[in-house]
Write a structure and sequence with these properties.
By secondary structure, this protein is mostly helical. It has one domain. It contains 8 helices and 2 strands, in the order ααααββαααα.
Length: 198
């Protein structure tokens, strides 16, 4: 773990060789994040975890103005970039189809992000992105907490460390964010279920 922070610091200081040494150290964790993100995608999604990792890594290497604080910060930004890549991919596919089908992701695997619901229920990836955009406008820190907890899979304690706040604050704001997202995503989930309430 310390190696990642040291490599990030060396890279930030201008050591280009640190970037080449960083990839093998972070690849497995980036792949885990990508697999976690892809698990929520509809079956037959055209973007594969390896491609998602590669695209995210390329974007990470272009983050010249980012002040890398530590390993947690690096992976939090990686998870945020993966979410953006997935949303961009869906938007591109919809433009190609000229308003074709919505691509949906399942909410399985987020047991405490939404209220209990039947297994296999789903929500449109663009609806989730839109809901997170609204949350970010209202409560930016709550949006960061969702990204860290849901997309990065961080614990409450790791999220608190990454954001420089207490674990109690993370728990409180996580609960508020879940309530907000549940309310925002409810219409999209009902539509995905054929208009029936889940």
């Amino acid at each position: 773990m310390g190696d990642i922070t040291q490599l990030l610091n060396a890279w930030q200081a201008g050591d280009e060789s640190a970037l080449a040494r960083l990839m093998p150290v972070v690849y497995a964790e980036l792949r885990r994040l990508a697999v976690r993100a892809m698990r929520r995608e509809a079956v037959g999604h055209t973007l594969q975890p390896t491609a998602l990792v590669n695209e995210a890594y390329l974007r990470l290497t272009q983050q010249e103005r980012t002040n890398w604080r530590n390993r947690t910060h690096f992976f939090a930004i990686a998870a945020q970039l993966m979410r953006r890549i997935l949303v961009d991919h869906v938007r591109r596919r919809q433009r190609q189809r000229r308003g074709g089908e919505h691509v949906i992701i399942t909410l399985d695997g987020m047991p405490d992000l939404v209220a209990p619901e039947p297994s296999g229920s789903a929500v449109d990836v663009l609806a989730l992105d839109e809901a997170l955009g609204k949350l970010e406008a209202l409560a930016p820190r709550q949006c960061r907490i969702v990204e860290l907890r849901f997309f990065s899979g961080l614990t409450v304690e790791a999220t608190a460390e990454a954001l420089g706040i207490s674990a109690i604050t993370v728990k409180r704001e996580w609960a508020m964010a879940k309530t907000f997202l549940y309310r925002e995503l409810r219409p999209a989930r009902e539509a995905a279920c054929g208009g029936e309430r889940p």
